[in-house]
Specification:
The complex is a heterodimer. Chain A has 12 helices and 8 strands. Chain A is an alpha/beta fold. Chain A is globular, with a radius of gyration of 18 Å. Chain A starts with a strand and ends with a helix. By secondary structure, chain B is an alpha/beta fold. In chain B, 18% of the residues lie in helices and 35% in strands. Chain B contains 4 helices and 17 strands. In chain B, helix 3 links the parallel strand 4 and strand 5. The longest helix of chain B has 14 residues, at 26-39. The N and C termini of chain B lie far apart (51 Å). The chains are: A alpha/beta, B alpha/beta. The interface between A and B is medium-sized, with 20 and 20 residues.
């Protein structure tokens, strides 16, 4: 079956696109899918660091596009998961080194050989964003429960609708249930109320995410992390399973039950 | 304005001209295009020109040659759009843009209506998201929400069957009798004619409201009640 091409984008920077791509890639690959992720943030690459693959980079996406290497040569295999590959961005070039048609060609070549292609989009709605969505079958929009991030997500969803990229699905990242409960943070309902798109996951705030990113070991590897669980659930939803949403409010019973379930698996 | 002949299409952009060529022989098209320019020097003189060359493969000397020919005629070539990576590359080498930001259809819409006056309405059956701007020389009816960051500028009245959280300007050409209604009136800003009001606080249990200019000349919102 040809791959599903999924672009992760947000409009605003710093909401967790790259973290989401890394974790979804890990979760999908742990579930038996063959995954290739592409860092679309040319000039400001990060995905390699978060996946812990920085020191293995020889060729990057611009090398492939400009014909200095074959596609396979730029695909870096993950340390732990043999079915997970990264095509890194070039750090010494800028977004103009790639065009949407370049991306289409590259994805066309990748499609027959894997189950999922995940594209990490840069922040903004300019060239890099256009490149990242050019070949997407599906777009995941990441936002945080804060007004400015939601505003930018709304803008991006509007552009995706105008470009007929299909209905976007939303990931609400870094939700803090305590702040929401005290009315100091937008709730998932507030965000959905405004954006009116399909919700594919809510990821709770979790300091393990930062630790994982710094160590190059995404939190989806960690069976105990709440955020990791949330990303694993999103991955299963992308694989077509129906997975109920985590109940983030109850710190105790249900969460522990879910953890036990996950542990037994 | 749009002008077509067999090979070349010329369109007005917001800030210049867009000339579209097709895949026929480059020499032929270049000659034909320059002939068109020479036929109407006044029209082209001083223009900023973007060139869409479809999938033509052009090298540095092709583009340099054209650029120089154009600049002799007082036309500045600033962008070359192409499906060919080689041509894109060439254009980049020459410091030309390879993308022209076309206003996306959803972003800014200016609907023109001729001689129908105030009694025309534009019906939009969708939610307007951030970044959308609707300008219309009549009334505007939205069946959906107007999100923060979206803007409607209408010469007549504006009716929102949904939540209004963006910016609406009714009576934009000075009609002080214009009104703005919404099921939930929580805009970032409202304007009627020259009156501006800052954000209204969102309500716990929203009810339909109508905003208009009152007898003191101030913008005021009132709850709608039946009867």
């Amino acid at each position: 079956m040809p791959a599903q091409v999924i672009t992760v984008t947000s409009g605003k920077g710093g909401v967790g696109k790259t973290t989401a791509v890394a974790n979804l890639a890990v979760a999908l690959a742990s579930n038996g899918s063959k995954v290739v992720c592409i860092d679309g943030d040319i000039g400001l690459r990060n995905l390699d660091v978060i996946l812990g693959l920085e020191n293995r980079i020889v060729y990057d996406i611009v090398d492939v596009i400009e014909g200095r290497c074959r596609l396979k040569q730029a695909m870096i295999r993950d340390k732990k998961l043999p079915e997970l590959y990264l095509i890194p961005a070039a750090q010494t070039r800028d977004k103009n080194a790639v065009s949407p048609s370049d991306m289409n060609r590259l994805i066309k070549e990748l499609r027959p050989d894997c189950d999922f292609v995940l594209i990490d989009s840069p922040a903004g709605i300019e060239r890099g964003f256009r490149n990242a969505i050019a070949a997407a079958d599906r777009v995941l929009v990441v936002t945080n429960p804060e007004v400015s991030a939601v505003r930018d997500a709304d803008r991006v969803i509007g552009i995706l609708e105008a470009e007929e990229k299909g209905p976007a699905a939303l990931i609400i990242n870094r939700l803090n249930p305590t702040l929401v409960k005290n009315h100091n943070m937008l709730s998932a309902d507030d965000v959905l109320d405004l954006l009116a798109v399909e919700l594919i996951g809510i990821v709770p705030e979790d300091e393990n995410v930062i630790v994982g990113s710094n160590r190059g070991a995404p939190v989806a590897h960690d069976p105990k992390s709440k955020a990791g669980q949330a990303f694993r659930n999103i991955a299963r939803r992308l694989q077509g399973e129906k997975v109920p949403f985590l109940d983030l409010d109850s710190q105790g019973s249900l969460w522990e039950r879910l953890q036990r379930l996950a542990g037994r698996k | 304005m749009t002008e077509t002949n067999s090979l070349i299409q010329i369109k007005g952009l917001r800030d210049g001209l867009l000339v579209s060529l097709d895949d026929a022989s480059w020499d032929e098209q270049r000659t034909a295009f320059l002939a068109q320019v020479d036929a109407r020097p006044d029209f082209f003189k001083g223009a900023r020109l973007a060139l869409d060359v479809a999938s033509q493969v052009l090298h540095v000397n092709d583009l340099v040659d054209l650029r120089d020919q154009l600049s002799e005629r007082g036309i500045s070539l600033w962008a070359v759009v192409s499906e060919s990576p080689t041509t894109e590359n060439t254009a980049q080498l020459l410091g030309l843009a390879t993308r022209i930001s076309k206003p996306r259809p959803e972003e800014t819409r200016q609907f023109s209506v001729r001689d129908l006056g105030d009694e025309t309405a534009l019906f939009l059956d969708r939610t307007l998201r951030s970044g959308t701007r609707i300008e219309f020389p009549g009334h505007v009816v939205v069946f959906g929400d107007v999100n923060p960051g979206a803007e409607i500028v209408a010469e007549g009245n504006v009716i929102i069957w949904g939540r209004l959280r963006g910016m609406v300007h009714a009576g934009s050409k000075g009609n002080k009798n214009a009104q703005i209604c919404a099921l939930d009136l929580s805009p970032t800003q409202l304007r009627i004619a020259d009156e501006i009001s800052a954000a209204l606080d969102p309500q716990e249990n929203p009810r339909p409201e109508i905003a208009r200019i009152n007898e003191n000349g101030k913008l005021q919102a009132e709850f709608w009640s039946p009867g």
